[in-house]
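Per your request, structure below.
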Protein backbone atom coordinates (compact mmCIF):
# COMPACT_ATOMS: atom_id res chain seq x y z
CA UNK A 1 0.00 0.00 0.00
CA UNK A 2 1.21 3.47 -0.89
CA UNK A 3 1.47 5.54 2.30
CA UNK A 4 0.17 8.59 0.42
CA UNK A 5 -3.33 7.12 0.34
CA UNK A 6 -3.57 7.02 4.14
CA UNK A 7 -5.52 10.32 4.40
CA UNK A 8 -8.24 8.73 2.24
CA UNK A 9 -8.73 5.77 4.59
CA UNK A 10 -10.81 5.41 7.73
CA UNK A 11 -11.98 2.72 10.12
CA UNK A 12 -15.00 1.23 8.30
CA UNK A 13 -16.75 0.68 11.65
CA UNK A 14 -16.28 4.11 13.23
CA UNK A 15 -15.03 6.37 10.38
CA UNK A 16 -12.10 7.38 12.60
CA UNK A 17 -8.64 8.04 11.16
CA UNK A 18 -6.11 5.27 10.76
CA UNK A 19 -2.36 5.22 11.30
CA UNK A 20 0.17 3.09 9.46
CA UNK A 21 2.14 1.01 11.95
CA UNK A 22 4.40 -1.59 10.36
CA UNK A 23 2.28 -4.18 8.61
CA UNK A 24 -1.07 -2.88 9.85
CA UNK A 25 -3.43 0.08 9.87
CA UNK A 26 -4.36 1.07 13.40
CA UNK A 27 -7.22 3.06 14.89
CA UNK A 28 -5.36 4.94 17.62
CA UNK A 29 -8.57 5.69 19.50
CA UNK A 30 -9.89 2.13 19.75
CA UNK A 31 -6.68 0.16 19.20
CA UNK A 32 -8.31 -1.88 16.44
CA UNK A 33 -5.75 -3.22 13.96
CA UNK A 34 -6.31 -4.02 10.30
CA UNK A 35 -3.46 -6.14 8.88
CA UNK A 36 -1.82 -5.52 5.52
CA UNK A 37 -1.09 -8.65 3.48
CA UNK A 38 0.78 -8.56 0.17
CA UNK A 39 0.29 -4.80 0.18
CA UNK A 40 -3.50 -5.12 0.59
CA UNK A 41 -5.17 -3.76 3.76
CA UNK A 42 -7.66 -6.29 5.13
CA UNK A 43 -10.85 -4.77 6.55
CA UNK A 44 -12.76 -8.07 6.66
CA UNK A 45 -13.40 -9.62 10.04
CA UNK A 46 -16.52 -11.71 10.65
CA UNK A 47 -18.51 -12.26 7.44
CA UNK A 48 -22.04 -13.65 7.57
CA UNK A 49 -25.15 -14.28 5.51
CA UNK A 50 -25.11 -13.82 1.74
CA UNK A 51 -21.74 -12.10 1.91
CA UNK A 52 -20.16 -15.19 3.43
CA UNK A 53 -21.82 -17.50 0.92
CA UNK A 54 -20.60 -15.58 -2.11
CA UNK A 55 -17.20 -14.81 -0.61
CA UNK A 56 -16.72 -18.57 -0.54
CA UNK A 57 -18.03 -18.85 -4.09
CA UNK A 58 -15.60 -16.30 -5.51
CA UNK A 59 -12.68 -17.60 -3.47
CA UNK A 60 -13.31 -21.07 -4.86
CA UNK A 61 -13.83 -20.12 -8.50
CA UNK A 62 -11.54 -17.08 -8.85
CA UNK A 63 -9.20 -19.04 -11.13
CA UNK A 64 -12.05 -19.56 -13.61
CA UNK A 65 -13.24 -15.95 -13.83
CA UNK A 66 -10.91 -14.61 -16.52
CA UNK A 67 -11.06 -17.74 -18.76
CA UNK A 68 -14.87 -17.75 -18.46
CA UNK A 69 -15.08 -14.14 -19.59
CA UNK A 70 -12.83 -14.80 -22.58
CA UNK A 71 -15.00 -17.77 -23.53
CA UNK A 72 -18.12 -15.63 -23.20
CA UNK A 73 -16.69 -12.96 -25.51
CA UNK A 74 -15.70 -15.61 -28.04
CA UNK A 75 -19.10 -17.31 -28.02
CA UNK A 76 -21.18 -14.13 -27.99
CA UNK A 77 -18.88 -12.15 -30.28
CA UNK A 78 -19.43 -9.11 -28.10
CA UNK A 79 -17.83 -7.16 -25.24
CA UNK A 80 -20.38 -6.21 -22.61
CA UNK A 81 -17.86 -3.99 -20.81
CA UNK A 82 -17.96 -1.22 -23.40
CA UNK A 83 -21.60 -0.47 -22.62
CA UNK A 84 -21.16 0.40 -18.96
CA UNK A 85 -17.64 1.81 -19.20
CA UNK A 86 -18.93 4.30 -21.73
CA UNK A 87 -21.43 5.40 -19.07
CA UNK A 88 -18.64 6.36 -16.66
CA UNK A 89 -17.23 9.87 -16.56
CA UNK A 90 -13.50 9.46 -16.05
CA UNK A 91 -11.44 12.64 -16.42
CA UNK A 92 -7.66 12.91 -16.60
CA UNK A 93 -6.12 12.25 -13.20
CA UNK A 94 -9.43 11.14 -11.70
CA UNK A 95 -9.52 9.14 -8.49
CA UNK A 96 -11.59 6.06 -9.35
CA UNK A 97 -13.13 3.48 -7.02
CA UNK A 98 -14.43 0.12 -8.21
CA UNK A 99 -16.41 -1.73 -5.57
CA UNK A 100 -16.14 -5.49 -6.19
CA UNK A 101 -13.05 -5.11 -8.37
CA UNK A 102 -12.71 -8.87 -8.80
CA UNK A 103 -9.74 -9.85 -10.94
CA UNK A 104 -9.39 -6.26 -12.15
CA UNK A 105 -10.83 -7.01 -15.58
CA UNK A 106 -12.05 -3.42 -16.00
CA UNK A 107 -8.67 -1.84 -15.27
CA UNK A 108 -7.12 -2.27 -18.76
CA UNK A 109 -10.03 -0.24 -20.16
CA UNK A 110 -9.27 2.69 -17.85
CA UNK A 111 -7.09 5.57 -18.97
CA UNK A 112 -3.57 5.11 -17.63
CA UNK A 113 -3.42 8.43 -15.77
CA UNK A 114 -6.20 7.69 -13.25
CA UNK A 115 -5.63 6.89 -9.57
CA UNK A 116 -7.41 3.53 -9.31
CA UNK A 117 -8.75 1.97 -6.10
CA UNK A 118 -10.35 -1.47 -6.01
CA UNK A 119 -12.17 -3.20 -3.15
CA UNK A 120 -13.39 -6.78 -2.99
CA UNK A 121 -14.64 -9.21 -0.37
CA UNK A 122 -12.90 -12.20 -1.95
CA UNK A 123 -9.21 -12.72 -1.25
CA UNK A 124 -9.06 -15.21 -4.10
CA UNK A 125 -10.20 -12.56 -6.57
CA UNK A 126 -7.79 -9.98 -5.17
CA UNK A 127 -4.88 -12.40 -5.58
CA UNK A 128 -5.82 -12.84 -9.23
CA UNK A 129 -6.06 -9.07 -9.56
CA UNK A 130 -2.51 -8.65 -8.23
CA UNK A 131 -1.22 -11.09 -10.82
CA UNK A 132 -3.12 -9.35 -13.59
CA UNK A 133 -1.78 -5.94 -12.58
CA UNK A 134 1.77 -7.27 -12.87
CA UNK A 135 0.98 -8.76 -16.28
CA UNK A 136 -0.63 -5.55 -17.54
CA UNK A 137 2.06 -3.34 -15.95
CA UNK A 138 -0.66 -1.31 -14.25
CA UNK A 139 -0.97 -0.11 -10.66
CA UNK A 140 -3.98 0.01 -8.37
CA UNK A 141 -4.58 0.34 -4.65
CA UNK A 142 -6.41 -2.80 -3.52
CA UNK A 143 -8.42 -3.45 -0.36
CA UNK A 144 -10.32 -6.39 1.08
CA UNK A 145 -13.59 -5.26 2.58
CA UNK A 146 -17.37 -5.26 2.44
CA UNK A 147 -19.31 -2.86 0.23
CA UNK A 148 -21.65 -2.09 3.12
CA UNK A 149 -18.71 -0.72 5.16
CA UNK A 150 -16.24 1.05 2.90
CA UNK A 151 -12.90 2.02 4.52
CA UNK A 152 -12.75 5.42 2.83
CA UNK A 153 -13.45 8.97 4.00
CA UNK A 154 -16.40 10.97 2.72
CA UNK A 155 -16.22 12.64 -0.71
CA UNK A 156 -12.98 10.90 -1.71
CA UNK A 157 -13.62 9.77 -5.31
CA UNK A 158 -14.31 11.37 -8.68
CA UNK A 159 -15.74 8.15 -10.15
CA UNK A 160 -17.45 5.28 -8.31
CA UNK A 161 -18.76 2.11 -9.93
CA UNK A 162 -19.67 -1.47 -9.18
CA UNK A 163 -19.94 -4.46 -11.52
CA UNK A 164 -21.29 -7.81 -10.38
CA UNK A 165 -22.27 -8.93 -6.91
CA UNK A 166 -24.75 -6.43 -5.53
CA UNK A 167 -27.67 -8.74 -6.38
CA UNK A 168 -26.61 -10.95 -3.49
CA UNK A 169 -25.16 -8.51 -0.96
CA UNK A 170 -26.41 -8.72 2.62
CA UNK A 171 -27.65 -5.12 2.46
CA UNK A 172 -27.94 -3.57 -0.99
CA UNK A 173 -29.27 -0.25 0.34
CA UNK A 174 -26.31 0.12 2.71
CA UNK A 175 -23.86 -0.63 -0.11
CA UNK A 176 -25.44 2.03 -2.33
CA UNK A 177 -25.42 4.53 0.53
CA UNK A 178 -21.73 3.84 1.11
CA UNK A 179 -20.86 4.33 -2.55
CA UNK A 180 -22.69 7.65 -2.46
CA UNK A 181 -20.95 8.70 0.74
CA UNK A 182 -17.43 8.25 -0.63
CA UNK A 183 -18.23 9.94 -3.97
CA UNK A 184 -17.62 13.63 -4.47
CA UNK A 185 -20.50 15.99 -5.15
CA UNK A 186 -21.45 15.81 -8.83
CA UNK A 187 -20.05 12.29 -9.28
CA UNK A 188 -21.85 9.89 -11.58
CA UNK A 189 -22.23 6.43 -10.04
CA UNK A 190 -22.76 3.29 -12.12
CA UNK A 191 -23.98 -0.09 -10.81
CA UNK A 192 -24.10 -3.18 -13.05
CA UNK A 193 -25.18 -6.74 -12.37
CA UNK A 194 -26.98 -9.69 -13.94
CA UNK A 195 -30.72 -9.75 -14.56
CA UNK A 196 -33.04 -12.55 -13.49
CA UNK A 197 -32.88 -13.81 -17.07
CA UNK A 198 -29.12 -14.41 -16.83
CA UNK A 199 -29.32 -16.01 -13.39
CA UNK A 200 -32.26 -18.24 -14.28
CA UNK A 201 -31.27 -19.25 -17.81
CA UNK A 202 -27.52 -19.16 -17.29
CA UNK A 203 -26.03 -19.54 -13.84
CA UNK A 204 -28.62 -21.92 -12.39
CA UNK A 205 -27.95 -24.40 -15.20
CA UNK A 206 -24.16 -24.35 -15.00
CA UNK A 207 -22.29 -27.30 -13.46
CA UNK A 208 -20.42 -26.62 -10.22
CA UNK A 209 -21.78 -23.09 -9.70
CA UNK A 210 -25.50 -23.70 -10.25
CA UNK A 211 -26.14 -24.69 -6.64
CA UNK A 212 -25.11 -21.21 -5.46
CA UNK A 213 -28.03 -19.65 -7.34
CA UNK A 214 -30.87 -22.16 -7.06
CA UNK A 215 -33.65 -21.96 -4.46
CA UNK A 216 -33.27 -18.20 -4.10
CA UNK A 217 -35.67 -16.41 -1.77
CA UNK A 218 -36.60 -13.88 -4.47
CA UNK A 219 -35.99 -13.01 -8.10
CA UNK A 220 -33.13 -10.71 -9.08
CA UNK A 221 -34.18 -7.10 -9.60
CA UNK A 222 -32.34 -3.85 -10.16
CA UNK A 223 -31.86 -1.90 -6.89
CA UNK A 224 -33.14 1.30 -8.49
CA UNK A 225 -35.78 1.60 -5.76
CA UNK A 226 -33.01 1.68 -3.14
CA UNK A 227 -31.32 4.77 -4.60
CA UNK A 228 -32.10 7.81 -2.39
CA UNK A 229 -34.68 10.14 -3.92
CA UNK A 230 -32.37 13.14 -3.86
CA UNK A 231 -30.01 11.57 -6.41
CA UNK A 232 -30.11 13.06 -9.91
CA UNK A 233 -30.42 11.67 -13.44
CA UNK A 234 -31.51 8.21 -12.31
CA UNK A 235 -31.59 5.78 -15.20
CA UNK A 236 -31.69 1.98 -15.45
CA UNK A 237 -31.41 0.02 -18.68
CA UNK A 238 -30.90 -3.60 -19.63
CA UNK A 239 -28.22 -4.55 -22.15
CA UNK A 240 -26.31 -7.61 -23.39
CA UNK A 241 -29.55 -9.05 -24.74
CA UNK A 242 -31.34 -8.48 -21.48
CA UNK A 243 -28.79 -10.36 -19.38
CA UNK A 244 -27.35 -7.35 -17.54
CA UNK A 245 -28.71 -4.09 -16.15
CA UNK A 246 -26.91 -0.77 -15.81
CA UNK A 247 -28.14 1.59 -13.09
CA UNK A 248 -26.68 5.09 -13.18
CA UNK A 249 -27.31 8.28 -11.20
CA UNK A 250 -25.52 11.43 -10.07
CA UNK A 251 -24.75 12.62 -6.56
CA UNK A 252 -26.02 16.19 -6.05
Amino acid sequence: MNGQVLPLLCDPNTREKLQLQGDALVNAHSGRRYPIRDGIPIFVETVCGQNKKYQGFYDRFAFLYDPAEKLYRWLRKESFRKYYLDALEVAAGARVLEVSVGTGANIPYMRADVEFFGLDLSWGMLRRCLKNLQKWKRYAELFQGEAERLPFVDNAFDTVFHVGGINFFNDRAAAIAEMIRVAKSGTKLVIVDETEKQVKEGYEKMPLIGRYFKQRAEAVTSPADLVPRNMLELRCEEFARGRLYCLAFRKP
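The longest helix spans residues 49-76.

Regards,
D.
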